[in-house]
Fold:
Amino acid sequence: MRRHKLLLALPWLIALLAILFGGNALRPNVSASHQGIYDNIQLFNEVLNLVSEYYVESIESDSLIQGAIGGMLDQLDPHSNYIHPKRFEEMDERNRGTYQGIGVSFAIRDGHLTVISPMEGGPSDRLGIRAGDIITHIEGESAFQIKENEVFEKLRGPKGTRVQVTVRRAGRKEPLEFEIVRDEIPIESVPYAFMLEPGTGYVRMRNFSARTSDELEAALQQLEAEGLERLVLDLRGNSGGYLNAAVEVTDKFIEAGKKIVYTKGRIRGSSDDYFATDAATHPRLPLVILINAGSASASEIVSGAVQDWDRGLVVGQQSFGKGLVQRQYRLRNGGALLLTVARYYTPSGRLIQRPYEPDGREAYYRELADRFAEDDSSTAEPDSGEVPIYHTLLQERPVTGGGGIWPDVIIEASYHPSQLNTDLMLERKYFDYVNRYLSDEADRLPTEFPAFLAEFQVTDAMLDDFRALLEADSFAFEPETLATHRDEVARGIRSEMARFLWGENMRYRVLVAADPAVQRAVELLPEASAMLAESERIEAKRAAAE
Structure:
């Protein structure tokens, strides 16, 4: 039976290679190159069956075939991937609406289960799990060399159920233990939209799905009803998504006829130009876009087009640098092949893709982790001797090409939570304190959120009560550490109160109000407004000359 299962794997692999090579791999004697492919498939099948027949241990075909596929794709680029059926189901869920689990996106890198990003507001995010954390154990069992389908089986589950995970974090000698309560994970593209101050709106966008354009439009119309005059669009940590969604989002801010992005590929249909249409709904809105090292793909299309057309300011840190377009091919086992078919370029001709080497995926992603970890990476300037310089299309400002989008204004990354803050969230101490405080003092708090945000402060007496709670619960901490991180702890208490009283959106609003990157973006809005006015002047002059 085992031999029979292995033999059945050959047609499956041939079908996959047929996708890659246009179907000719199925027919010998088509050409010398395709004959070579066919011969190598036969060689692979021969080796596969010898392993099955004579290897010292029994081996399942699935692990061998998927290992072979992984090895083949490793020779390509870092973004061509085989998607296991369970993982593909997750991708589908991401576009449909919700799922139940711990709320992280992950990848298995060199056998380690690595957190790519926690879902904002999800169970893992609330406990302080970070991008780059390595989950070493799940329910006490090692997660090293875990398979993707096993990750879904162990971490997904009904809302309210619990799972224990052990995390290794860079810079920490001891592992961290988290008990995560699974929850319903919303998968909105635009989870937060609110006014920061009169006339100034803020929109957080975390991915680009089929619904992103509609969600953004609804958010902007809501803000316009509240007096929106200028906008901060936060794309930090947005790993991207659909190319068409990026074009539709950019189209809201770029006037008709302007190129948004273009692609170049080898096969028919992979090279194309994408232009703004007359459907632009907010072309006169002063705009600042926030990006960081986690802003990738579709995020870079939006920020690159806005920058190239002198339409707004891009602020933050160098983005991820993913300038490759994948086409999705469904496979007969329910999985999919995401295969790079083109590169994309900003309107000025910049290729955003970071350099990579075949079989160099680990180094490619490790570079990103290093950029997050290094304190001075957030304010690094591009090396003028190594990267090409382009110019924007209206005001002819110099902009850096290659290796991601370089902001117009580089600022330090927002602070990472201290270990004390992480431990307090991990042990649910903010929750415990706020739960007790509100049971006695709720009547003394403002009844409306704007008044709470503007007026309510955590007092020294409240912090003394909080310290007493920690001591009563035998929570290990140094008093001087609590004093050092007083503002951060006070913010944790305020945000937890906002969650209790008004929900997750208002918790996030409290945190954003104290975010130095957002504060800097607001300060730069007058400059963005002046840029927009200058671009309009240039265009009016060109139109008159014609």
